[in-house]
Design goal:
The protein is α+β, with helices and mostly antiparallel strands and 220 residues long. It folds into two domains: 71 residues, no CATH class; 133 residues, Cytidine Deaminase, domain 2 (3-Layer(aba) Sandwich), CATH 3.40.140.10. Helix content is 17%, strand content 37%. The chain has a six-stranded mixed sheet with strand order 1-2-3-4-5-14, with no helix packed on it. Strands 7-6-10-11-12-13 form a six-stranded mixed sheet. A two-stranded antiparallel sheet has the order 8-9. Helix 3 links the parallel strand 10 and strand 11. The termini are far apart.
């Protein structure tokens, strides 16, 4: 008989943060674990393309552990912004309807590609399918458009993104010169705002969102 509690512990271990030495890397590779630190409880997620440590809880008492800094490392390197501009053209062509696509990263070649995923759409909804990837390919960005509406993350988006590890992007008002963008890193239900970063790169205004986490420190 399988010990379900032991299986859960092995899949999502909880480790204390050392005070006088670095935390040992997670030898399992892809996966996630929880770090109990002097400044809170943190979630560490590792994928081939991403390493992130984000706080998920604070502590009201002094804990005898070291402190942890929130960190985001894109191990795949920066994805080509031209692909977002290509998607903008896809969104303009789909008007008045919405559309969707993925940005896929190949671990072996280091190359990115835009993969359209929309199967049917209306001006306020898009249905899409996620096709199988190549052996060394990973979904990095999940992107969809809002047609003539502003960019924002809806309650449907929140439900879809809750269990994912990815970058989610929405672009809106694509029928105008003032295309808006909302972007976030989705970390198993924790969201980190990337809107300002992408808007700056693309010279676009950001969507006015208020529910994101504060800016995180990005590791060198």
């Amino acid at each position: 008989m399988i010990d379900r509690d032991q299986f859960q512990i092995e899949q999502t271990p909880v480790v204390p943060m050392p005070r006088h030495r670095p935390l040992e890397p997670d030898a399992r590779g892809d996966g996630h674990r929880y770090i109990v630190a002097g400044n809170g409880v943190f979630l560490e997620v590792i994928r081939a393309w991403l390493h992130v440590i984000v706080r998920i809880g604070e502590t009201e008492i002094a804990l005898p552990f070291g402190n942890v800094t929130q960190t985001v490392q894109f191990l795949c390197g920066p994805f080509p912004r031209l692909l977002l501009k290509d998607f903008r053209q896809q969104a303009e062509a789909a008007l008045p309807n919405e559309t969707a696509a993925l940005i896929i990263w190949n671990k072996t070649t280091g190359e990115f590609r835009l993969l359209p995923t929309a199967v049917n759409a209306t001006p306020d909804r898009v249905n899409y399918v996620i096709p199988a990837f190549g052996e060394d390919e990973y979904r990095v960005v999940d992107i969809h458009s809002h047609g003539k509406l502003p960019a924002y993350f809806s309650s449907t988006d929140d439900a879809d993104d809750r269990h994912d590890v990815k970058i989610a992007v929405v672009i809106g008002t694509v029928d105008t010169e003032h295309v808006s963008i909302a972007a976030r890193a989705c970390i198993l239900g924790k969201y980190l705002d990337l809107s300002e970063m992408l808007a700056t790169d693309l010279h676009l205004p950001t969507a006015r969102e208020t529910f994101y986490e504060p800016h995180v420190q990005t590791a060198a």
